[in-house]
């Protein structure tokens, strides 16, 4: 076959139209689904290259609309007509054929970027995690992708950008958090995140053969995105950013977490303020209980609270709380009086105070100093 084929490809109908077709004209919807299935069988046979530019553009639009509608579909309620056996059969077949086409040609071959890739991940990662991760990071070799360069290009940065928009616009949902956890190889539950946030540890993390992908995804740029959204604990969506950071970090081994921290130029306690959300999580006892070896690999972040008592305190003068100098070195905006006050208010628990202020550096402004 050498001649170009002009194949009209209607976009995938939105929910309201599909619902109406299912309810009033199910036969029409069955035939339309059959047409889509035949289209993707045609593509699976290696015929994408013969489509005209117009047909390719229509295909790209179909894929974007299909992925969006299918990702969003589980939250919608169809009419009773949706139980039609032929409809269910053809919808399941189309879902399988769309995945197969993207697997054969790659994400970039079909002009899929950030938003559409995230929908693709959400739809398929549960049952096809290895292939999905490979397509996203560019390591999977698509058999029918004749552009070898695009086959090696990672889409991780594009996904990062989309997730940043979701978080900053308040549209990052629990479903998105679950999708992220599965993508990174976790079976972490919402309960686990709540427990970590409330100071409890809960070993339900399930590490599989996903560490290599997680190490690529949870990089310095991703940390920056979450730190920006967290905004020292005062961001509008700080809680969402923190949960995303927890899920991301739990996917990594202690060695990689140490490398990630050092990639932010953090090599000692006084530098933790450079990435407060990251550091507040990784030095917490609860996180150490979840990730084996964390305390050993991140020992350079643990302040030495011993021998911090000044030897030249004057007789009758109230001694400084232990760890005062360390606290001030970590938080430059913390005056000696405020450092002393916050330690005394927290039973001189230096690690607790450090965690508290890393999570919300803005608390420094609220510390009351007795006169």
From TrEMBL:
Residues 319-362 form the CUE domain. CDD domains: CUE_Cue3p_like. PROSITE patterns: CUE (PS51140). It comes from Candida tenuis (strain ATCC 10573 / BCRC 21748 / CBS 615 / JCM 9827 / NBRC 10315 / NRRL Y-1498 / VKM Y-70). Keywords: Ubl conjugation pathway. SUPFAM superfamilies: UBA-like. InterPro entries: CUE (IPR003892), Cue3_CUE (IPR041808), UBA-like_sf (IPR009060). The keyword Iron does not apply. GO terms for molecular function: ubiquitin binding. This is CUE domain-containing protein.
């Amino acid at each position: 076959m050498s001649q170009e084929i002009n194949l009209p490809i209607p976009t995938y109908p939105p929910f309201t139209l599909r619902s109406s077709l299912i309810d009033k004209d199910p036969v029409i919807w069955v035939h339309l689904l059959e047409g889509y299935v035949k289209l993707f069988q045609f593509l699976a046979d290696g015929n994408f290259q013969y489509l005209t530019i117009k047909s390719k553009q229509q295909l790209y639009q179909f894929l974007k609309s299909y992925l969006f509608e299918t990702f969003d579909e589980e939250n919608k309620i169809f009419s009773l007509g949706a139980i039609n056996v032929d409809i269910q059969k053809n919808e399941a077949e189309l879902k399988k054929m769309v995945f197969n086409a993207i697997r054969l040609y790659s994400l970039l071959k079909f002009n899929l970027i950030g938003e559409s890739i995230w929908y693709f991940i959400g739809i398929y990662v549960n049952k096809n995690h290895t292939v999905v991760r490979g397509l996203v990071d560019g390591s999977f070799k698509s058999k029918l992708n004749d552009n070898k360069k695009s086959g090696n290009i990672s889409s991780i940065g594009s996904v990062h950008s989309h997730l940043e928009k979701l978080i900053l616009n308040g549209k990052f949902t629990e479903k998105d958090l679950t999708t992220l956890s599965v993508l990174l190889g976790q079976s972490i539950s919402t309960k686990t995140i709540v427990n970590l946030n409330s100071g409890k540890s809960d070993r339900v993390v399930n590490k599989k053969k996903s560490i290599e992908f997680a190490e690529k995804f949870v990089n310095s740029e991703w940390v920056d995105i979450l730190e920006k959204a967290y905004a020292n604990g005062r961001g509008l969506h700080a809680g969402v950013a923190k949960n995303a950071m927890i899920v991301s970090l739990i996917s990594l081994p202690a060695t990689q977490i140490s490398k990630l921290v050092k990639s932010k130029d953090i090599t000692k306690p006084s530098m933790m303020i450079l990435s407060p959300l990251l550091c507040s999580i990784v030095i917490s006892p609860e996180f150490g209980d979840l990730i084996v070896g964390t305390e050993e690999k991140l020992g350079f972040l643990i302040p030495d609270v011993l021998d911090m008592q000044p030897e030249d305190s004057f007789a009758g003068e109230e001694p400084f709380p232990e760890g005062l100098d360390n606290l001030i070195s970590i938080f430059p905006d913390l005056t000696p009086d405020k450092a002393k006050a916050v330690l005394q208010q927290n039973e001189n628990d230096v690690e607790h105070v450090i965690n508290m202020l890393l999570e919300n550096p803005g608390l420094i402004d609220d510390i009351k100093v007795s006169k």
